[in-house]
Amino acid sequence: MLMTTDSVVLYSEQIEGMESAKILVVDDEPSVRFTLVKFLTLKGFRVIEASNGQEAFDMLYRYSFDLVITDLQMPIADGRFLMKKMAESFPNIPRIILTAHEEEDDLLLALKTGAYDFLKKPIPDLSLLVHSVNRALERKKLHDERSNTIKQMEHINEVVSMLNQGKNIEEIFTMLTESLNHIIAFNRITVFDFFAESGMLSVRLSKSDRSENLRVGEELIIRGKVLDKIMNNREVVIIPDLHAFFASDDYPSIFYKVLTEGFTSAIITPLITEDSVHGFLVLASVNPGYYTAEDARFLTAIAGQISFSLERGRLLSELSTHTRHLEKMIQIRTFEIMKTQKITIFALSKLAEIRDNETGEHLERMRNYSLLLSQLLKYSGNYPEINNEF
To answer: The whole model's pTM is what?
Structure first.
């Protein structure tokens, strides 16, 4: 992992600083192991050695390897044992076989167990080995990228499917929290609103499995290296060490609340809508150096959908509030209109009664009859829209 002077790692920087491939060299001859380890180390690889097949197989369970180079003829457990075991338990790790005895049975075994290459010892030109190693690693890289892409697409579809079910911003945030936590573990998730003109951050939504020190609606002004870095590059930012990060610049006291909850690393995703950063999604962990390039790659892929869903949730919440207000206003105005109509009808009735006593009595009878008819219809249960206001 690449650490910059301000303890912040951009996703692109972490990709560039990825560690070199790790190779396991297996041979019972110390001189052969020494030569291969020395040569491959000088070529930039990380190399670990084992003296027999059983030792190598045990190491495969303890460490992660990108490639295995093995001899066939060895005591205790030979290369044939290792090839068969790897075909069963570690089929995706490429294998290169080195042997001084190029027998037909060994060639068949190499083919059956999925060996990538078969080289005869002694190797006259070690550049042949480097060429074979690079080709095997490139093949593994392509396979891993394909598998990771398929897995990432499944995760993206899972998150998008859940986000699309939310009817307001609170529901969307809850679904985002549940779906993300299955993919990228975290102890706190927070959504900040960002106001570019003032440099103000506001806590919109937050959830933590620790004591909750950040309150929804809490505001703070932030300026400094990290904000400049995010705004200029608009990339996911990994903070592997929060203690070093806070010590590197002058930050508001609110950020130190994070440390009191025990968080030691974080990953920050800018939320962009219409080419403007309007907020940040922050995941924090109690484990130092927890977040990886794979996490950053996933968040980069899903950031647009998260921004859209949160904005949709905000608009739906505002629309719901406006609709309730409008319904209340309509109810009040309807009541006022009905009240005015009732007063007008009574006034006309009184006027008619004054001018013509028989007409007035007729109108009174009609009014009473109408009220009686309305009550009968109301209590029949078939007309729920009739109420006492009428």
So the answer is: 0.53
